[in-house]
Recover the amino acids of this structure.
């Protein structure tokens, strides 16, 4: 994939590293000459030091060949301008960080996919890691949804029961779905007849915030 990344702060740099490892064709645009120089020596990528709110800069970055553009700066006004230009230049996939959730609709109206308030996402993850140590790989989704993993202990009411039976007993509420089971290092997608056993690591999706009481009950 030919990818243009605008902004090489902490999020942008992490994205650059992932994209480079995955062998994408990456071009980075950053306003800081010093940061651009550091990136060009560290990664096998093309780095431009310039103003990404200029259509000419994005053309120089290869907008006519780009499959995607991702904007990661901490300024929503800058991000919105870059998105607008990228859409006008016909880049197929445009994604942007939105630091203030109140601005998200402006980006969506232009046709961009958005990642809202990344600092809040990180803060929520850290809070849940401390507050709910039994939950692994917690992620917040749009409109309050959650995806998380937990390990079933021997005292859990889920043990030696099928998913459908646990649902009938209301141990698993209607708002919760078991997406996958990791058992002895093997992962599979279960149907409602799957019997859960001690040590299973469940990947769960919830339509709403899961209470500490429910987590404790499921874990056992």
């Amino acid at each position: 994939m030919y990818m243009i990344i605008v902004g090489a702060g902490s999020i942008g740099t992490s994205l650059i590293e992932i994209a480079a490892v995955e062998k994408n064709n990456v071009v980075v645009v950053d306003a800081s000459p010093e940061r651009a120089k550091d990136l060009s020596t560290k990664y096998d990528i093309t780095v431009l030091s310039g103003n990404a709110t200029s259509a000419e800069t994005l053309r120089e970055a290869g907008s006519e060949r780009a499959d995607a553009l991702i904007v990661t700066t901490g300024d929503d006004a800058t991000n919105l301008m870059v998105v607008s230009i990228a859409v006008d230049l016909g880049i197929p996939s445009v994604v942007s960080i939105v630091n203030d959730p109140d601005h998200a609709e402006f980006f969506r109206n232009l046709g961009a996919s958005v990642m809202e308030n990344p600092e809040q996402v990180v803060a929520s993850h850290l809070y849940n890691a401390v507050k709910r140590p039994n939950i692994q790989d917690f992620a917040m989704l749009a409109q309050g949804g959650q995806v998380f993993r937990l390990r079933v202990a021997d005292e859990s009411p889920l043990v030696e029961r099928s998913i459908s039976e646990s649902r009938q007993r209301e141990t698993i509420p209607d708002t919760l779905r078991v997406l996958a089971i990791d058992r002895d290092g093997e992962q599979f997608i279960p149907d409602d007849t799957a019997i859960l056993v001690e040590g299973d690591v469940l990947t769960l999706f919830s339509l709403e915030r899961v209470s500490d009481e429910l987590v404790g009950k499921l874990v056992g």
Q: What stands out?
A: The radius of gyration is 22 Å.
